[in-house]
Each structure stands twice: as structure tokens, then as C-alpha cells.
Amino acid sequence: MSSFVSVTRDNSVAVVAIDNPPVNALSFHVRQPLFEALTALRDDASVTAIVLACAGRTFVAGADITEFGKPVQQPELRAIVALLETIAKPTVAAIHGTALGGGLELALGCHFRVADQAARLGLPEVKLGLLPGGGGTVRLPRLVGAAKALGMIVSGTPISAGEAKAAGLVDAVFEEELLAASIRFANEMVADGGPFPPVRDRNERLAETDLSAFDAKAAELARKARGLEAPLACAQAVRNAITLPFDEALAAERQLFLKLVAGDQSRAQRHLFFAEREAAKIQGKDVTRRKIARVGIIGAGTMGGGIAMAFANGGFPVTWLETGEEALQRGLAMIEKNYAVSVGRGSLTEEARQQRLGLFKGSTDYADLADCDLVIEAVFEDMAVKKVVFGKLDAVARPGAILATNTSYLDVDEIAASTSRPQDVLGMHFFSPANVMKLLEIVRADRTAPDALATVAELARRIGKVPVVVGVCHGFVGNRMLSARGTENEALLLEGATPGQVDKAFTDFGWPMGPFQMGDLAGLDIGWRNRKARGQTAVIADTLCGQGRFGQKTGRGWYRYESGSREPAPDPEVEELIRAKAAELGIARSEIGADEIIERTLYPLVNEGAKILEEGIAARASDIDVVWTNGYGFPIGKGGPMFWAGLEGAPKIVDRLEHWHRLTGRVIFQPAPMLRRFAETGSWEGAGG
Ligand code: 3HC
Ligand code: NAI
């Protein structure tokens, strides 16, 4: 017996319990004793049934991700599942928490799966750039049908115990204590006498498959995969389950898994899995968190509304403050509309809608913020206005309340200094729409107290956000790098590219959209206002804005949008304007290739990241990757800009930056010392010295 796997008896039923905190991953030190225990129980005539259960907070949450990329140690998960299928007496997986990936595949080796009501089951391997490699693609379709399995495996999204029961994945859902109910269930099966066919032999649901409908669905999913290999491999593997004999489909799944696990995309996605968890860890584990029960939000505009919803969705009561009743009512109406849309779509129940709306308390009086434990300011982006707001907040907030600003660019130290309690002030930079976007940049000001920082990082995860701590600078990590990425946009146009060509180079790279389409979506007037405030110009964009072309909202921007459509169409007028401006400036235009577009936009992005790292604005290169994949659509299959720099080849990046620096003299191309060191050592950590 091992400390990771124990066997106990309830009369003739054997209970095998896995205990490998925190999530019972199937590490080698679990697989080995599990294999031995199951072999012994199979051969033990005094055992009539086997219940497979887990200690702690969850059933098995998957293979041990830290073992990928290392030599495989036997027995593999596949061998354990195969062993389970040689056991004639009933085997029952008792699922609580989550049965994910290899965990669900283990359960699929059992004759029966039972669960408590809160359990969730899924095959999320695709999110790690993989497919289920323990037989999940060939066994799940046999239980739930190929169409349902395709949806689950390609999306990677787990389903509830109730849905799993309805789909045929789970045989019973229990309200009472799970283990006792599972043992009772096992005894009932013994009494029933069988036969108990293993999942591999249950082919009835597969036979029902409509292959052409399946292929149509798979083709639709392939279109959405945006260059990611794993979703396509998942679809192929499920198709194999329909068309090939079991063992052949299983072998094909194995081949696809081995290819993916060794590839750059999965490496990138695994990097992001750990990077997100690392970013959430705040130094000083022992710091006591402050209690956050009620949240105050100042400003009911675009961001205030999204932030308010994010907290209400997380179950927090919200006091919402505006300058006047009308603005407040506008904000509340926006939220009501958003929730009504969710109910209409079926993603929210009417009961949940009412419960969430019940959490809001509107106000126009600062005194009402006195009982809030955290107050987030989301008013106009104007230092003078923010200082007035923080002054009033300082006068009413309770001692120890955390005071946060959602500013995009402004100096959080200066805002903090306008209060008598800078230790309680920090930035919480949400992304729009704040109820949807996962990224939260937590801005650590000079004097922010460690416990305030740690409290907000923990809170962020409770409302489903991915927190990253950043330092104070203009635009923090994300927007500062965005500005470096966009510096050459107009030059590319003037020198010969069209907005469509630049955007295509981006979408071919894997971005959801390019910078010009993005600009049209966000509204070109925002940048215009910013430039004017900073005394900056952009020859083409300023002209477009001067013509009232603000992007999608005015039907015209870098592109043309026909009668309310969101589809960008190239606009000859814009192309003419670019040609005219180039002629005016004496710039000869010529063809610009995709490689050059990437070099002049994404190499400066990496370079700025290196500077940010050098200045300590971000603590780790992987934090920057988390910011860019969660906040700006950097393709996850490339792992974020700093990870991608390694794939692309840092020496090449340095070389090409030097080239562009010589040619243009622009500072964005001047290689950061840290990037040079990365090029030499191959590690950002080492580069940090
Ligand atoms: N392997 C190794 N470590 C894992 C792990 C896994 N499968 N799953 C989680 N961990 C680690 C995390 O890195 C974290 O470590 P840390 O405390 O040192 O940072 C710790 O466990 C706790 O994880 P979370 O912070 O994510 O805990 P939560 O409670 O928020 O979430 C969870 C729990 C939903 C299980 C989440 O951890 C999760 O989604 N895990 C990954 C599940 C998954 O992808 N499974 C498939 C693996 S691939 C596979 O099975 C291949 C097979 O088909 C052959
Ligand atoms: P917005 O203009 O939509 O909303 C601002 C709201 O603040 C308005 O409803 C206004 O009535 C209210 N307001 C102004 N002064 C106030 C005061 N003294 N007290 C109470 N309410 C007041 O602006 P938006 O876009 O929501 O931006 C708010 C902040 O969030 C800004 O600092 C902005 O830089 C930042 N931000 C904006 C993002 C975006 O994509 N729009 C993204 C991330 C941050």
C-alpha cells in the first residue's frame, strides 16, 4: 500500500482511494500503486465490486502536466484503463469535484460512473494544445454519442453532473454522501448480476452517428481553430472512433497525442497554464488577507458597468456611485439589458438574473461608500477628476478599505498621494468588456501594502479573473506594449501596405484581428483624443477622424461597414488617402511582405516587453505572456510574446531590430539589453541576472 493509493473494504466491496493533493493528478507515484492495487483486487475472489474514489477536494483532475515532455514512466494511464477493462466484477468511479482529462479517462475504464451533484466532468486537454491521450476520444463517444463527444472534446469545457447523467456519461447522481451511496450502488450492481460490458464494447450509440452531419460540424470547428492544431486532431480522433475498429482508433489517438505533446503549440499552452497560476501568486504567502464583503464602484460608464457585473456575477453586493441620478439609471439600465440578453440566450436563469440585480445599490452620495471594503474608481481618464474622487473617498471610506483606480494610463503613485492612506491604494486595470475579459492588471504603487495587493489578487480569482501584478508606468504592461506594437502602423501604410494587408498578416499569425480592424472596433476617436491631449499626431488616422470616420460606430473608419454590418470591407477612399499622404510626404510606396509587417510590429512588442522586465514593471517574462494572451488576443498557440520570442529565435529578432534601427533611427527598434542577454542565454530568467 502507498500513501498515494489506499484500499479499504466495506464487506465485499473494495474502495480504492487516490490521495495526491492538491488535485489528485495521475503522477507516476499514483499510477504505479494504483495499477498494483487494481491487479490484486481483480484477482481477489473475496472482492465482489470495486469503487474508485478520491480524497480531498476533487476526483482526479488529469494526467500530471509536469510530466509531459519527460520520458514516460510505466505503467501509463492507458495501461491502467486497459487493466480496468479486464475486470469482470462491477467497477464504479465515484466522482466529486472535477473528473478532468486523464481523470475522466480513468473513470471511462470503469463499468459505471456515479457523481455528487456539484461534480463536473470534461476532457480539457485541448486547452493544453493536446487531445485526450488515455482513450477518451474513443470511449466518450461510445457513451454520449459522437456529436456530443465532439463538442466536449473540441471545446474542452466540462459539463455538470446533471448534464452528464442526461447524456449517458454518468449512471447516477447522488444527493447523499457520495462514498456510501457509491458502495450501495456497487452492491446493487452485484445483486443485478450483469452482464457488465466495458465501455469499449458499447457500440450502440456510435452506430447512430450521422457521419455527414458530424463532418459538417467538424469542418465548422476547423474554421474556428485559427491555426491551432489540437482542435483539428481532436475532431479527427473522434471521427476515427466512429469509422475505425476500437483498437485501431485507440492507436491512432496515441499517435496524434504524441505528435501534439512534442509540438510547440502544446508547449506554449502548457507554459501559459503554469504562467497564469504563477502570476496569481503574490510574494509573502503569510500575509493576512483583508476581508472583502461589499464592493463600491464609482462611475457607471462602460467600464464601471462591466466591473459592477463582474462582482455581482461573483456574488458580491455592489454600491454603485454616480454624479447624478440620470447617469446612475443609465448604468443600471445597461446592466438590466445585458442580463436580459443572457437570459434570452439561455446562459442565465431568470432566478439568477433577479438575484444578481438584487445585489446592486445605486447612490449619488459618497457617504454610502462607508461600509465598502473595496472601492473601485472608473470615472473619466483625467488626473484632476480622479484626484477629486479619491479626496472624497478618503474622507468617507472605512479604515483599511482598499481604494482602487481603473485608470488605463495615469500615474497611480500620484493618485495614491492625493489620499491620506497611500498604503491602501492600488490600480485594478480591467479590460473591456470587464464582465467578459479575464485579464486584470493589478497596479502596485510605490507604497501599496503587501496585504492589499495579496487580497486583490485572491479576490480576482474569486470573480474568475486572471490577475497579473504590474508596476507604475504609462500604460502599465499591456497598453505600453500595445503602443510599441502600433508605432509603425502608419509608416507601413505610407510605405506601401494597405490596412487589409497588415490585418491579414496578423490574422495569419493567429490573432483574432489585426490592428486596423481592432481600431475600428474600439473607436478611432479614443486614440485621436489621446493624441491631441499629448500633442501627438498620426497623419492618416487624424485625417480619418477629422472626416468623422470613427470606425464601426460611424460605419466608416479604416474600412467601410455596409449598413450596420460588422464585416470590414476595403475602402478605396482610404487607400486613395494613404497614396495622397505618401506623395505629399515624398514617400515612394512599394510592396510590403507579411514578414516585414511582423518584424516591424511584433519585434518591437517583444523589445518593449524586455524593457518592461528590465525596469521591474513586470516580475516575470511569463507574466507578460499572461497579459497578452488574456487581454489582447495574442495567439495562445504561440504562448505570448516573450515565449514566442524563444520560438522565433531571439538572435534573429535582435539582428532585425538592429537593421530597422539603423534604417529608421526609431527608439522602438533599439534592442533592449535584456533582449540581447536573452538572445545569448536563451532564458529570460538568466537574462535577469
Ligand atoms: N497536473 C499537475 N499539476 C496540476 C494539474 C495537473 N493536471 N492540475 C492542477 N495542477 C496544479 C496547479 O499547477 C496548481 O499548482 P500550484 O498550487 O503549485 O500553483 C495546483 O495544482 C492547484 O491548481 P489550481 O490553482 O488550478 O486550482 P483550482 O482549484 O483553481 O482548479 C482544476 C482546479 C480545475 C483542477 C484546475 O487546476 C485545472 O483545470 N487543472 C488542469 C486540468 C487538466 O487540464 N487536465 C487534463 C490534463 S492533460 C491529460 O489529462 C492528458 C491525458 O489525456 C493523457
Ligand atoms: P465612460 O466615459 O464610459 O464612463 C465614465 C463614467 O464616470 C461616466 O458615467 C461619468 O458620469 C462618470 N463620472 C465622471 N466623473 C465622476 C465623478 N466625479 N464621480 C462619479 N462618477 C463620475 O468611461 P470608461 O470608458 O468607462 O472609462 C473609465 C475609466 O476606465 C477611465 O479611467 C479609463 O481610462 C479606464 N478604462 C477604460 C477602458 C475602456 O476600454 N473603455 C479599459 C480599461 C480602463
UniProtKB/TrEMBL annotation:
PROSITE patterns: ENOYL_COA_HYDRATASE. PANTHER family: 3-HYDROXYACYL-COA DEHYROGENASE (PTHR23309). It catalyses: a (3S)-3-hydroxyacyl-CoA + NAD(+) = a 3-oxoacyl-CoA + NADH + H(+). Pathway: Lipid metabolism; fatty acid beta-oxidation. It comes from Mesorhizobium abyssinicae. Residues 295-471 form the 3-hydroxyacyl-CoA dehydrogenase NAD binding domain. Residues 475-561, 597-684 form the 3-hydroxyacyl-CoA dehydrogenase C-terminal domain. InterPro entries: 3-OHacyl-CoA_DH_NAD-bd (IPR006176), 3HC_DH_C (IPR006108), 6-PGluconate_DH-like_C_sf (IPR008927), ClpP/crotonase-like_dom_sf (IPR029045), Enoyl-CoA_hyd/isom_CS (IPR018376), Enoyl-CoA_hydra/iso (IPR001753), NAD(P)-bd_dom_sf (IPR036291). CDD domains: crotonase-like. It comes from the Bacteria. Keywords: Fatty acid metabolism, Isomerase, Lipid degradation, Lipid metabolism, Lyase, Multifunctional enzyme, NAD, Oxidoreductase, Peroxisome. This is 3-hydroxyacyl-CoA dehydrogenase NAD-binding domain-containing protein. Its main location: other. In the N-terminal section; belongs to the enoyl-CoA hydratase/isomerase family. Belongs to the enoyl-CoA hydratase/isomerase family. The keyword DNA damage does not apply. It is found in: Peroxisome.
